[in-house]
Specification:
This protein is α/β, with parallel strands linked by helices. The protein is built from 14 helices and 17 strands. Helix 4 packs parallel to helix 10 and helix 7 crosses helix 8.
Length: 423
């Protein structure tokens, strides 16, 4: 059996995990590993230090290397490094969701020109197989909707807020202490990570290029313990949901934001750092993929799986996995969040005056918004009350205009939060 010669760029937690998995396969030969610090101590038994280089171009320009594994992350300088690799006729296996979401179109076009492929199973949901199933066994389907939990950090934080009645700050600190959240958690808690992933998944599912810059993104930093408590009382859990939907007119609705998810819904039952993806399509119907969405072992599983499939293909053909070649020539027409239709959870701080609820109903009605549920959370010491409203299906543009007018009304102090609802 001919061995596949690979180079690894990035040797942190994931890169080390990939190395440990691949070194046990006799048909995979790891030729070189690019690191930032050659002198850093590696917790790997009998590790050959001669494999290390601090120059990634030693890998992408090496004629003996067939495949470049990229697990370094980020866009710069990785984009230029991988461009060089592709121009040198090397296949790519990457776990880099940010790079693929921002520069995927350019890289896939370049790969097609150079007759190489890019595999990226690990980029969207860690150990959950989703990219290859969509591109292969599900390719006969017209996928119309994706609803997913794609970020384990935020799901862990929201789970602990719900289970232990923690504030957001306390739950975040706990997640950081356990290694679920970075010291700077912005990428996770502000929804960037989930946005990159839903951009990639929507592109391959709907066969249209989705622009990451046109995805509405909202994180979980405004979620309060009171929101969690109110949602629970109404029969919901709060989750950060990544959504993609192919509309009847061919336009695409792609967004990331917190949602109240009905407790009966499958995504409401996904807790801690677990990820879950729900796909709807014809003729397959509804599918759910659930598992570990991050971490060294799950991510290494997907990276190594891509490598082993590629090794098997290259045994018999110089044109491996043609179904993975990007053929998304059409640019998606993505709708603005203002044009979406949702049910809403709205927390309103108001003075405890007679007629306040009537004012809310009148203003909402004026803007074509029907109220399905209204609840008051007692009286505060300053004689204000938090009024929770759940609306029926309404247009985002109308809801936002209703809130602007409501804030001009007597006795309405502020809007504490607005969240969309999934039933």
């Amino acid at each position: 059996m001919k061995s596949l010669k690979v180079g690894i760029i990035g040797f942190g937690t994931v890169g080390t995990g990939v190395y440990k998995v691949l070194k046990s396969f006799p048909n995979i030969e790891i030729k070189k590993i690019a690191v930032k610090d050659i002198n850093k101590k590696r917790d790997i038994e009998n590790f050959d230090l001669s494999l290390l280089t601090d120059n990634p171009y030693d890998i992408v320009s090496n004629p003996d290397i067939d495949v470049v594994i990229e697990v370094a992350g980020g866009v710069n300088p990785v984009y230029d490094i991988l461009k060089t690799a592709i121009q040198n006729k090397k296949h790519i296996v990457s776990a880099n969701k940010e790079l693929l979401a921002k520069k995927g179109s350019e890289l896939f076009a370049l790969a097609k020109e150079n007759n190489v492929i890019i595999l990226y199973e690990a980029a969207v949901a860690g150990g959950i197989p989703i990219i290859m199933p969509v591109k292969t066994i599900l390719s006969a389907n017209k996928i119309t909707k994706i609803a997913a939990i794609l970020n384990g950090t935020t799901n862990y934080i929201l789970t602990k807020m719900a289970e232990q009645n923690l504030s957001y700050d306390v739950a975040l600190k706990q997640a950081q202490e356990l290694g679920y959240a970075e010291t700077n958690p912005t990428g996770d808690v502000e929804g960037y990570d989930a946005a990159y992933k839903i951009a990639i998944l929507s592109t391959i599912s709907f066969n249209k290029k989705v622009d990451i810059n046109k995805i509405y993104r909202e994180g979980i930093t405004k979620i309060t313990a009171q929101d969690i408590k109110s949602a629970k009382a109404l029969g919901y859990r709060i989750k950060l949901i990544a959504m993609g939907q192919l509309l009847s007119d061919g336009k695409i609705d792609v967004r990331v934001h917190p949602m109240l998810v009905a407790k009966k819904h499958l995504l409401a039952k996904v807790d801690n750092a677990t990820n879950s993806i729900m796909l709807s399509g014809y003729p397959v119907g509804d599918l759910v993929f659930t598992g570990a969405g991050a971490g060294a072992e799950p991510t290494s599983s997907s990276v190594a799986g891509d490598i082993l499939v590629l090794a098997s293909e290259l045994e018999t053909t110089s044109n491996p996995l043609p179904q993975t070649i990007c053929r998304h020539n059409e640019i998606a027409e993505q709708i603005d969040i203002g044009d979406t239709y949702n049910e809403y959870y709205i927390a309103i701080n108001a003075s405890n005056n007679p007629g306040t609820i009537g004012i809310i109903g009148t203003v909402f009605g004026k803007h074509n918004i029907n109220i399905s549920t209204i609840m008051q959370n007692g009286i505060n010491s300053d004689n204000t009350a938090e009024i929770i409203v759940i609306t029926e299906l309404g247009k985002e543009f109308d809801v936002q205009n209703a809130l602007k007018e409501l804030l001009k009304s007597d006795g309405i102090n502020k809007i504490d939060n607005l969240l969309r609802v999934m039933n």
